[in-house]
Amino acid sequence: MALRANRVLSIVDLSGTAVKNEGLESVAKGIEGNYALISLRIASNEIVGGSRSLACLKNIALKSKLQEFDVSRNPLGNECFKKFSRTLAESTISKLVCNSIGIDCNVAIIL
User: What's the whole-model pTM score?
Assistant: First the structure.
């Protein structure tokens, strides 16, 4: 994927492009090892929480140098987001945008 080799782009906004879970896997593989990318926006892409999407989110967080990650308006749900949030302490992400992702206050407070 071109993103892996691109050392110029620092911001990629794929919001509202119907990436879905299948596309998320491609994005995760494509940015692995790309340390120029500091902001990734994948809002409103019908990405549903589950073990495969969780693995992709973790890979994105841990195998890049992202500072900003927007996952808003994707129905990730409580379990997926709770497990993903544990990854954040090991990542370089300093700004996580997670509006309307289908979590309740008990999960939101763990951030």
Answer: 0.92
